[in-house]
Amino acid sequence: MKTRIRHIALNTENWDRMARFYQTIFGMKKITTGMTDEKGNYNPNRGHISDGVIGFAMLQKHPGNQSGLDHFGFEVEEIPLVLERMRNDYPELLVAKSLPHVPFSVSRGTDPCGTQYDISQKGVAKVREGYLEDGWDQPRQVSHISIRSKQPERVAEFYHKVFELDAGEAPGPDGSFRVTDGQVELLVRPCDNALYRGMREGLDHIGFRVENLERTRKEIEELSESAPESAPANLDAGRFGPMTRADLEGCVIGQHAMADPDGVLLDLSE
């Protein structure tokens, strides 16, 4: 079995409105049962959702955790082999055991720019519910996860060497590098000082592939009218809005820049 990018996690204080957005616009379905709510209680109505390939873990934000994108995860054939490659080639990088209650992850590691990712293996006891299934195909699915780095080529090489992701297209005009599991790409964009957020290393945005861009945009407008609490955040708001939009539109894959209800940056492409 080849390595697969298998989940994305973000921290939110608004699980219900976020779930409605992703389920309505991208057709995501719940694949696990039960998560902690804003009061710290177990809520059986919450859970990870999925586009058929990628599990979305919308985690309750707790004090000390940053809102928005937090980490992503791999499903590998042999966890010990991956950890051995990391010890041999990247001994300076951190690896830890995952928390016992997490329904996917076995280990947590960092890449050369500090991005955190989970490592899992099908068949281990911690992997349960929808993560045991092969998933399904649907018209709207995650196309790429973007990472920002001061050394994009080195980060892309790390994912190629440790997880055996295939090298993608040649470096983009912006100096970005791409690796892929065959379904989802990791797009490693260079940091820059054109705006403050462009100076930060780590997860940058998520990209979705849709069957019809105009139809999707219309459905987003309809959701904004019928359920304004689940409307996308205004990407152009404030003094920095136009700069954020311009930066996101510089992605070599995306065709339409936007944000989810919490302000997590997304782009769409046909």
Overview of this structure, please?
This protein has 270 residues and is of the alpha+beta class. It folds into two domains: 4-132, 2,3-Dihydroxybiphenyl 1,2-Dioxygenase, domain 1 (Roll), CATH 3.10.180.10; 141-269, 2,3-Dihydroxybiphenyl 1,2-Dioxygenase, domain 1 (Roll). Helices cover 21% and strands 31% of the residues. It contains five helices and 17 strands. The chain has helices at 15-26, 79-89, 152-163, 213-226, 241-249; strands spanning 4-12, 29-30, 35-36, 42-43, 49-50, 55-60, 68-76, 95-97, 107-110, 116-121, 141-149, 166-167, 177-180, 185-190, 202-209, 256-259, 265-269. The chain has an eight-stranded mixed sheet with strand order 2-5-6-1-7-10-9-8. Strands 12-13-14-11-15-17-16 form a seven-stranded mixed sheet, sandwiched between helices. A hairpin with a 5-residue loop joins strand 9 and strand 10 (116-121). It is globular, with a radius of gyration of 18 Å. The mean pLDDT is 94.
Instruction: Return the string of H and E elements.
Output: EHEEEEEEHEEEEHEEEEHHEE
- Helical percentage: 10-25%
CATH homologous superfamily of the largest domain?
2,3-Dihydroxybiphenyl 1,2-Dioxygenase, domain 1
CATH architectural type of the largest domain: Roll
Low-confidence stretches: none
Largest β sheet strand count, sense and barrel closure: 8 strands, mixed
Report the strand count.
17
- Cα-atom radius of gyration: 18 Å
